[in-house]
Structures are given as C-alpha cells and as structure tokens.
Amino acid sequence: MTAAADRTPTAPRRPPFAGWLGTTNDVTKTFLAAGRIEGLINMAGGLPAPETYPAEALAAIARRVIAEHPQDALGYGPIEGLPELRDALAARLGGPDLSLTRDNILVTTSGMQGLDLLGKVLVDEGALIAAQAPTYLGALDAWRPRRPRYRALRVDRPDFDAVAGLTGARFGYAVPNFSNPTGRLVPMPVRRKLAEAALATGTWLVEDNPYGGLQFDGEALPRLIDIAAGAPPVAAPGAAYEGPVIYMGTLSKEIAPGLRIGCMVAAPEMIAALTMAKQGSDLCTSGVTQRIALAAIEDGLIERLQPELTALYRARRDALCAALAEHLGTWFTFEVPVGGMFVWVVARDPRIDTDRLLNAALEAGVCIAPSSVFDASGEDRSAFRINFTLNPPERLEEGVRRLAGAVRRLAGA
Ligand code: PMP
C-alpha cells in the first residue's frame, strides 16, 4: 500500500527570498511583532496621540478639495508632486539665506519613501553611509536591502570630527532635532561642523527633520540647510538652492501619519535623480492627500494645532520622566528632552542587557525599543528608547511600573 504522503505530488521548490531578508536580527522581529500582543502598553513606537488627529477639519478639507480639484485629486499627477504644493513648500521651507524654487522640491509619500529613494539613488552594495549614531531604525530598514557599510557619526562626543566623518561617504545622515532614538538636539557648534564639513568635502548631508515642529521648551536652532545656505557665496534671491544638504520633512507628526505626505528639499540635480527613483516606486504621491496637504498649509492648520499638541506632549513627557526617575532611577539615567517623542534611557550598569530586558518587559506587558535595533552592527545593548506621546500619563506610569518589575526580575533583586 502506498502511504498518503507518497501520493501527494511534490510541490515545486519556490525560489528563495532575497538575501537581505535573512539579515534582519531576531530582536527587530520580536520588537515589530510586539504590537499585536493584547493588553500590552506600547511605549516602543514613535506614534502620535490618535486623539490629536484633526479628523473633522481634514474631512471638510477632503470633501472640498476633491469637489474643487477632481483632476488633481483623482488622476495621475506629476512624479515630483503638484506644482502648487511644491511652490507652497518652497515658500514655507525657505529662509532668509535659503532661496528655494519649485525645482528644489520633491513631494514624497511620506518621510519613509524619501529614505528609500535615497538608498536607490546613492547606495550601491558596500557603499559607505555616515550616520548619526544611534540611527533611526526606519532608515536602517530602508537601506538594508542595498547592503551598505556604516560609519557612526558620534555627534555627542566633544572630539567629534565632522570632516573625517563625512569623507569618503556617499552621504551623511542626521536627525538634528529631537533625534530618533535619543530625543536629543544636536547642539549649534556641531550643526556648524556638520554643515561646514558637507560644504568642504562635497558630501551629501541628509537632514531628517520630522520632529522639528514638536519643541516644548526653548528656541529652535537653525537647520543644517540654513547654515549651509548662509555660508558664502550666498545664492541670489530667487535662485534655486544648489548646496549639499538634503532636507526631509513630513506632516506625519504635526498633522497625521495617515496622510503619508512628506517632502525632500535638495539641489535640482538631486531632485531629478530622486524623481527617476520615485517613478519606479509609486509614479506619484496620492493627489487626494497632496491637495489636502496644500489646503491644510494654506488654511494654517499646522499652526492652529501646534499649541495644543505641544502642551499635551509636554505634559506626557513630564509624566514619563517623573515615573522613570521614581521607578528606574537606580538602574538607568536619562536626559529630559525638550521636544520630540522619545526619552533615551541608558543603563548605569554595563551588565544590564536591553535585548534581554525587551523580552522580560514583554512578559510584564510593556514594550520598549532596545538600543540594538538602532545600531547598524546590532551590538549596542546598553540603552532603550521609550515613547511618551502615544499614552496618557496614567498609562505611562503603569508602563514604567511594569518595566521596573521586569528590571528587578532580570537583576534578581
Ligand atoms: N525619519 C525619522 C527620524 C522618523 O522618526 C520617522 C517616523 N518615525 C520618519 C523619518 C518617517 O516618518 P513618515 O514616513 O511617517 O513621514
């Protein structure tokens, strides 16, 4: 008699997945899967508070723009973005020394697409990326399929040498405002060093700025692109910007991430290259959301939302930092961020392993983001990132209490 298995025709072998998929480490997988655990307090993500999304205002705008601009909203549009939106972004993002034209602007399907396009136009296998360390996980994810090498830009160190950092790299990558993951500001002297090094070496320097609008205390510092544009010779008014800084913005944190609208500001030759890459990616960003974004900018929606948003997040930051100091101060240190969405919590004892802490935290019903996922080499286990924008104060405090329980268990205390 033939066994049932013998009668089943053998399925043909499927071709393998691309090799880079095998290079994602287990912690990244655990961390990404954690969102589905029921009852979990998610303090790992970089998510805005959903109650801040201006649903009614956006619904009214959407209805109006689709009725008034059906062709722009519902048809295929130019790859670079709708001309009116590019003009509005050029006007909004220019500065006293930074003259921008439409040719400096690419509308993207949010910041993540911009990072992906940068990989497409600048990274061949083995190419060197000089990235502020620790580095935004989404950027590492976007560039991973291209198998780059990394050099860590340690912008927090007093002896940081920006020229040595950028020399030989395809591009530098920095998040100067309330960095993801550390929540820190790159201080003014280091901003100057980075901008001057980009000008001196000719290296492209990517300034990723999703959090600049979420500043709770103090004055905003100049952007890298302003500093670079202000160095002589300053461009004539009305001329296109030609410098080495590639600036990236998004409406995800100041309005709503579901819009998936962002933009890149760069020299026209870079915008042309990115446009070629975008053509092979999505042909154009949704016209519906581009028209909504344009109307939101023209209506002053961002400025109207900002005071309430920053007040809410400031209070949540304070609640999280108070809870961290009370429950985790023995084992960890942290700086209070003046903006953004994150606190970077560093172990006092080098024996604390934050990869192991992630597993213990998940068992305790809370999720944090361990430092290894923000390290191109995956080795740093000395810190974790914790978010304060998604949860209200009582949940933040409960999350930190659960985390402290996990730390005590790990420490055998
Ligand atoms: N860059 C950084 C540093 C971020 O933190 C994020 C969002 N987490 C992004 C880019 C991308 O955001 P989005 O695609 O929503 O614009």
Write the layout of secondary structure elements.
Elements: H1 4-7, H2 26-33, E1 41-42, H3 55-68, H4 70-74, H5 83-93, E2 105-108, H6 110-122, E3 128-132, H7 137-143, E4 149-153, H8 162-166, E5 171-174, H9 188-201, E6 204-208, H10 224-230, E7 245-250, E8 262-265, H11 268-279, H12 287-299, H13 301-328, E9 332-334, E10 342-347, H14 354-363, E11 366-367, E12 369-370, E13 383-387, H15 393-411
Parallel strand pairs: 1-11, 3-4, 3-5, 5-6, 6-7
Antiparallel strand pairs: 2-8, 7-8, 9-10, 10-13, 12-13
The chain binds 4'-deoxy-4'-aminopyridoxal-5'-phosphate (PMP).
Keywords: Aminotransferase, Pyridoxal phosphate, Transferase
GO molecular function, one term: transaminase activity
Cofactor: pyridoxal 5'-phosphate
Describe the structure.
The structure is a single chain. This protein has a seven-stranded mixed sheet, sandwiched between helices. The chain is an alpha/beta fold and 413 residues long. The termini are far apart. α3 crosses α12, α6 crosses α7 and α6 crosses α11. The protein folds into two domains: 143 residues, Aspartate Aminotransferase, domain 1 (Alpha-Beta Complex); 248 residues, Aspartate Aminotransferase, domain 2, CATH 3.40.640. The protein has 15 helices and 13 strands. Bound molecules: 4'-deoxy-4'-aminopyridoxal-5'-phosphate. The site of 4'-deoxy-4'-aminopyridoxal-5'-phosphate has 14 residues, from α6.
